[in-house]
Design brief:
The protein is an alpha+beta fold. It is built from 10 helices and 6 strands.
């Protein structure tokens, strides 16, 4: 059995589940890399002072320790912002090496001047002095290079995810706008006016289709709410029940009017339900397809939690190719983008059965 899950319950992105998890782990630490480096070198300075105190029993010269921290941090900031981008992004490697040598020379010169002007002991430009300084700088630059690499990798993954999200959005828009919505809805209104005269019951059934189409034609950029999406799912299920006389469904949808205030990206839930009719054996009486939507208050009493449970027996289609396009994986990316760490899902599937549990934690309705 294959099991996948979003891996979090409580902010944003990724090309797939693995990328999403990596981005979430790196986001807070890598979004502001210079702050991260500041904390690293502050911790380094504190550990150095503690070890010096343990070894000597006292700290004689606070000034030189403070100088090492400030000068070292300024060096790695310039190395991070100037040298590395010049070398890797702009491909001006000779200039990057020149900048690097200038920074090292300036560091050595400033330390010699500080020693001569403010310290009792005067340092000289000796071999041991240069070895000690370059050894300290080398460790600083290794740490800085690692953080810079993580930061660049984070930015690349984020950019890829944004491109993926735009692609998914274009697929939804293409799916929604293949015909002029005004033409379709106005034409259906004409048919509705004729049908209602012949059979009010048939007109009611026909209204399921018109309502579903009206929702699908809703402009993509407009705010969309959970109640609208759930209503669209209900219309879709009503239509499928009319289409298939041997349909076997176990539907439990309990979503109150408070859902009118909660956002839900358009067509996401509808896509998950539609997949049931494409991939499952929805006519097996012994294994009915389970579709459950529940919106209930949080246990803490603050906000609401929306749960989706879908379970079905998988239909064996033999060698028939499975369709591609806007499917469950795209839905999960869109929902994760929309709800960040308030969204969670788990998928269990094998060759026989499929199940999905999806949760979204909404704040207090306003």
């Amino acid at each position: 059995m294959e099991t996948s899950e979003s891996g979090h319950l409580s902010d944003y992105w990724g090309i797939n589940d693995r990328d999403s998890g990596i981005i979430r782990m790196l986001r807070k630490a890598i979004e502001k890399p210079l702050y991260l480096l500041f904390l690293i070198f502050l911790l380094y300075a504190l550990v150095d002072l503690i070890l010096t105190f343990i070894q000597l029993g006292e700290i004689n010269n606070w000034f030189i320790a403070l100088f090492h921290f400030i000068a070292g941090y300024l060096l790695i900031v310039l190395y991070f912002k100037l040298v590395l981008p010049e070398y890797f992004h702009r491909k001006r490697r000779l200039r990057a090496v020149f900048y690097f040598l200038v920074l090292l020379t300036a560091l050595v010169f400033i330390k010699l001047m500080v020693s001569k002007l403010w310290l009792d002991e005067g340092l000289t430009l000796s071999k041991s002095f240069l070895v000690n300084e370059f050894s300290r700088v080398f460790h600083f630059l290794i740490i800085t290079s690692v953080v810079w690499t993580l930061y660049e990798n984070f930015l690349l993954r984020q950019k890829k995810h944004e491109m993926e999200m735009k692609h998914d959005q274009l697929q939804v828009m293409h799916r929604s706008l293949q015909l002029s919505s005004h033409f379709v809805m106005n034409s259906l209104s004409v048919y509705m006016a004729r049908i209602i005269k012949l059979s009010p019951a048939l007109a009611t059934e026909f209204s399921y289709l018109t309502s579903l189409l009206r929702y699908s034609f809703k402009e993509f950029g407009l705010p969309n709410f959970l109640k609208e999406e759930v209503d669209a799912v209900n219309y879709y299920l009503d239509i499928q029940k009319m289409r298939f006389s041997r349909i076997s469904l176990d539907v439990n949808i309990q979503v109150g009017t408070v859902a009118e205030k909660f956002p839900m990206p358009k067509l996401c839930l509808l896509t998950l339900v539609e997949n049931v009719f494409f991939h499952s054996d929805y006519t097996d009486v012994d294994h009915p397809c389970r579709i459950e939507f529940l919106l209930v208050p949080e246990a803490s009493g603050e906000g609401y939690v929306f749960t989706v449970c879908i379970a079905n027996k998988i239909l064996d289609r033999g060698e028939i190719d499975i369709r591609s396009g806007f499917g469950a994986s795209s839905v999960f990316r869109v929902l994760e983008h929309q709800f960040a760490n308030h969204f969670d899902y788990t998928v269990d599937s094998d060759a026989v059965n499929y199940s999905l549990i999806l949760t979204i934690h909404y704040g207090t309705a306003v």
